[in-house]
């Protein structure tokens, strides 16, 4: 047991995992590219194929979390709502505090069979991340500049596109718009005070425009809002590097299903509804801090083998050729070829480190960080 734990912290293992992710990812991106001619002929078939291809990429990160690090994801939700998860499309509203909250979200998606089709209102910068960003282009992910004047038209258009999507999907909204930091919290609470809204202790003040427009444009397509609140046990601060090192975390997610009919249509009422929701989410976090659990029963679906099987498939396919290639290189005796290979591998490692950096809060954006935004309002 100890040996496996040590093995998981070894650089060689990390390099192999990253190599498999990158090479399989680029191959899948190329397959996605091949579906382009199919779009004008049979758009729905092209979308379904892309869901499967997307699954093959994102499930590798799920496998890393569930099987490599052994992280436990516990779902607090009522059994009646739970029976509907995966059988309908929904808008998911989730707090944005953790570096791996996207992996936890994906893991829950995987357990309910909607991982391939899952969607998000994501910042535009993520569309440039190799493999994941390129995959998202084919999955019709909605990107925004986080500038309402610039975003309005494009976001509405992208949301309307999803109205005839052939698979059930969950559309994720981090209404806070950026990850929680003390500084961002302080500034957003000054905005709350100016607006006469109650202060939040665990959340940033939600931005309401994206939520209102999503509800408006997906009404009739999605059946409910899944209000989701995530926390990690024992004040864990999980990171992607921790997961890669095989560190086990304990995620707890509280989900309430709110039928879409209960959400007001009019924009200002919808915004007020969202502010109220965040006040409730703050209370759930307070409850969690006090008691170490969320209210209500635990209805956790077990992990499924598919993410692991997909991962093993890619490992088997790609690791043997890698070792053969390395062996050939060493045996070739050409110093310049060996040096070039090392330089190439180093450049790829720097690229991977940059990708991991995208998940790190301390390297996060300045959005919500500038006092100047206060003066504008
Ligand atoms: C059972 C299952 C349950 C759960 C499973 C969980 C999840 C699984 C689901 C799906 C998984 C899918 C994918 C996951 C994988 C990866 C994705 C991970 C992450 C990517 C996410 C991101 O990139 S987050 C960043 C981008 N997204 C957003 O920003 C969305 C939220 N933002 C908005 O909606 C915005 O409104 C906007 C972006 C549309 C427009 O931005 P803008 O800044 O222009 O916003 P506003 O016009 O709203 O802002 C102006 C108003 O805000 C007030 N203001 C000013 N300063 C502040 C401040 N510091 N804090 C708060 N508010 C501020 C200002 O006063 C304006 O007020 P108004 O009254 O005029 O509105
Ligand atoms: C098997 C897998 C091996 C993995 C090896 C390494 C692969 C690296 C993968 C990188 C994945 C990058 C996907 C990024 C998703 C991050 C989502 C996120 O959390 O974005 C932050 C924004 O919401 C807000 O940004 P800020 O304004 O807080 O700034």
Automatic annotation (TrEMBL):
<dbReference type="Pfam" id="PF01553">
    <property type="entry name" value="Acyltransferase"/>
</dbReference>
<keyword id="KW-0012">Acyltransferase</keyword>
<dbReference type="GO" id="GO:0005789">
    <property type="term" value="C:endoplasmic reticulum membrane"/>
</dbReference>
<protein>
    <recommendedName>
        <fullName>1-acyl-sn-glycerol-3-phosphate acyltransferase delta</fullName>
        <ecNumber>2.3.1.51</ecNumber>
    </recommendedName>
</protein>
<dbReference type="Pfam" id="PF16076">
    <property type="entry name" value="Acyltransf_C"/>
</dbReference>
<dbReference type="GO" id="GO:0005741">
    <property type="term" value="C:mitochondrial outer membrane"/>
</dbReference>
<keyword id="KW-1133">Transmembrane helix</keyword>
<dbReference type="GO" id="GO:0003841">
    <property type="term" value="F:1-acylglycerol-3-phosphate O-acyltransferase activity"/>
</dbReference>
<keyword id="KW-1208">Phospholipid metabolism</keyword>
<comment type="pathway">
    <text>Lipid metabolism.</text>
</comment>
<feature type="transmembrane region" description="Helical">
    <location>
        <begin position="12"/>
        <end position="31"/>
    </location>
</feature>
<comment type="similarity">
    <text>Belongs to the 1-acyl-sn-glycerol-3-phosphate acyltransferase family.</text>
</comment>
<feature type="transmembrane region" description="Helical">
    <location>
        <begin position="335"/>
        <end position="356"/>
    </location>
</feature>
<keyword id="KW-0812">Transmembrane</keyword>
<comment type="pathway">
    <text>Phospholipid metabolism; CDP-diacylglycerol biosynthesis; CDP-diacylglycerol from sn-glycerol 3-phosphate: step 2/3.</text>
</comment>
<feature type="transmembrane region" description="Helical">
    <location>
        <begin position="306"/>
        <end position="323"/>
    </location>
</feature>
<keyword id="KW-0594">Phospholipid biosynthesis</keyword>
<dbReference type="InterPro" id="IPR002123">
    <property type="entry name" value="Plipid/glycerol_acylTrfase"/>
</dbReference>
<dbReference type="InterPro" id="IPR032098">
    <property type="entry name" value="Acyltransf_C"/>
</dbReference>
<keyword id="KW-0472">Membrane</keyword>
<dbReference type="GO" id="GO:0008654">
    <property type="term" value="P:phospholipid biosynthetic process"/>
</dbReference>
<keyword id="KW-0444">Lipid biosynthesis</keyword>
<feature type="transmembrane region" description="Helical">
    <location>
        <begin position="126"/>
        <end position="144"/>
    </location>
</feature>
<keyword id="KW-0256">Endoplasmic reticulum</keyword>
<feature type="domain" description="Phospholipid/glycerol acyltransferase">
    <location>
        <begin position="90"/>
        <end position="212"/>
    </location>
</feature>
<keyword id="KW-0808">Transferase</keyword>
<keyword id="KW-0443">Lipid metabolism</keyword>
<comment type="function">
    <text>Converts 1-acyl-sn-glycerol-3-phosphate (lysophosphatidic acid or LPA) into 1,2-diacyl-sn-glycerol-3-phosphate (phosphatidic acid or PA) by incorporating an acyl moiety at the sn-2 position of the glycerol backbone. Exhibits high acyl-CoA specificity for polyunsaturated fatty acyl-CoA, especially docosahexaenoyl-CoA (22:6-CoA, DHA-CoA).</text>
</comment>
């Amino acid at each position: 047991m100890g040996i496996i734990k040590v093995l998981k912290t070894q650089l060689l293992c990390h390099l192999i995992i990253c190599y498999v992710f990158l090479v399989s990812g680029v191959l899948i991106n190329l397959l996605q590219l091949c579906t382009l001619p199919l779009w004008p002929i049979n758009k729905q078939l092209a979308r379904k194929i892309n869901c499967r291809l997307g699954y093959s990429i994102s499930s590798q990160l799920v496998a890393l979390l569930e099987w490599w690090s052994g992280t436990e994801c516990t779902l607090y939700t009522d059994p009646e709502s739970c029976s509907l998860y995966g059988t309908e499309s929904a808008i998911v509203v989730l707090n944005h505090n953790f570096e791996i909250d996207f992996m936890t979200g994906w893991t829950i998606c995987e357990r309910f069979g909607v991982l391939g089709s899952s969607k998000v209102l994501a910042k535009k910068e993520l569309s440039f991340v190799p493999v994941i960003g390129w995959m998202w282009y084919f999955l019709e992910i909605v990107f925004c500049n986080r500038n309402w004047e610039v975003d309005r038209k494009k976001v509405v258009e992208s949301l309307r596109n999803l109205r005839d999507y052939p698979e059930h999907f969950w559309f994720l909204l981090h209404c806070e718009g950026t990850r929680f930091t003390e500084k961002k919290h302080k500034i957003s609470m000054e905005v709350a005070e100016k607006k006469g809204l109650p202060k939040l202790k665990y959340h940033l003040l939600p931005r309401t425009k994206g939520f209102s427009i999503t509800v408006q444009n997906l009404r009739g397509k999605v059946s409910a809002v899944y209000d989701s609140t995530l926390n990690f046990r024992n004040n864990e601060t999980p990171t992607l590097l921790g997961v890669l090192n095989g560190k086990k975390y304990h995620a707890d997610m509280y989900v309430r299903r709110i039928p879409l009919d209960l959400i007001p249509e009019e924009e200002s009422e919808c915004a007020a509804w969202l502010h109220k929701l965040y006040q409730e989410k703050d209370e759930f976090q307070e409850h969690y801090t006090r008691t170490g659990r969320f209210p209500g029963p635990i209805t956790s679906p077990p992990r499924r083998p598919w993410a692991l099987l997909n991962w093993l498939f890619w490992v088997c396919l790609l690791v043997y050729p890698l070792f053969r290639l390395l062996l050939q290189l060493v045996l070739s005796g050409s110093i310049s070829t060996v040096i070039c290979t090392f330089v190439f591998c180093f450049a790829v490692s720097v690229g991977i480190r940059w990708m991991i950096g995208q998940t790190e809060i301390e390297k996060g954006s300045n959005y919500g960080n500038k006092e100047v935004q206060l003066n504008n309002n």
